[in-house]
């Protein structure tokens, strides 16, 4: 028919998508658990919970990795997107005590090659395998006119399980409990809109210029390039926390919103979490952002994790044992009777170690 149009001309290549789909069974097989009953292809994934649990409760969470994808795309490191979304998601269900069961990813973009899509899915699969989580399936959508050519987004959905009587919900937190911080690997997956502007990287310049800027080695980073510091992946904490989880009264994953937004999510009424910001060394990447962006300490702690990715609340009698058992853990504060606000950050006006 004269003048007929094809889907590929509108930006969606069905043949290329079919070729990509044929690679998925082998990728998903890297992150397989015995409870998985379906292979790639059906309209839904199947997962048998089985009878190993007495009173199982499912924990679920959904998230993305935000504008960090701009840096990963410019640097040609789409393989790092998977560890970021998995680390973030595993931590979000860890705080209630859940272990991960399965994960589904959602990739939407415009003009990604099959090689780029494969790098994304392989990164997710490898990260799932690292934490013992099945990659049960997902969706890859070509969306011209929604995303600019070459751009994409990655989101994920995780489901885990916890015995009902083992749920960690903060109700055991009491005045006198000790706050223990676990070090982050960097920004993790939050605050990149501010970081990109403060450091003037992936801030509208061509990709070639972004790559050049990422090669800078500021003295604050101790030999790392700017790219290495910014692209460090989101650290999952399940492996370190699981051996001491029976001694934990509450946990807070320090993501977007920093300490004042995330810590209160697990606090019962009538208590205040007092955090001494001088208790740990703030990584150089945060000091660099603050300096170049002229960002106040108050704002930095509202946006970033500042070097602590997970906060544990434990009884004073268990604090030393937990500190000894969890690598890198540091005492960063305590729970007190209500002082008028849920979180107090001590030491901001005096500067932080580093």
Automatic annotation (TrEMBL):
Gene3D superfamilies: PurM-like C-terminal domain, PurM-like, N-terminal domain. Transmembrane segments: none annotated. It is an enzyme of class 6 (ligase). One of its GO terms (cellular component) is cytosol. Its EC number is 6.3.3.1. One of its GO terms (biological process) is 'de novo' IMP biosynthetic process. The keyword ATP-binding applies. It is found in: Cytoplasm. GO terms for molecular function: ATP binding; phosphoribosylamine-glycine ligase activity; phosphoribosylformylglycinamidine cyclo-ligase activity. It comes from the Bacteria. Keywords: ATP-binding, Cytoplasm, Ligase, Nucleotide-binding, Purine biosynthesis. Residues 57-162 form the PurM-like N-terminal domain. Pathway: Purine metabolism; IMP biosynthesis via de novo pathway; 5-amino-1-(5-phospho-D-ribosyl)imidazole from N(2)-formyl-N(1)-(5-phospho-D-ribosyl)glycinamide: step 2/2. InterPro entries: PurM-like_C_dom (IPR010918), PurM-like_C_sf (IPR036676), PurM-like_N (IPR016188), PurM-like_N_sf (IPR036921), PurM_cligase (IPR004733). SUPFAM superfamilies: PurM C-terminal domain-like (SSF56042), PurM N-terminal domain-like (SSF55326). Its main location: cytoplasm. CDD domains: PurM. It catalyses: 2-formamido-N(1)-(5-O-phospho-beta-D-ribosyl)acetamidine + ATP = 5-amino-1-(5-phospho-beta-D-ribosyl)imidazole + ADP + phosphate + H(+). Belongs to the AIR synthase family. NCBIfam families: purM (TIGR00878). This is Phosphoribosylformylglycinamidine cyclo-ligase. It comes from Tepidiforma thermophila (strain KCTC 52669 / CGMCC 1.13589 / G233). The lineage of its organism: Bacteria, Bacillati, Chloroflexota, Tepidiformia, Tepidiformales.
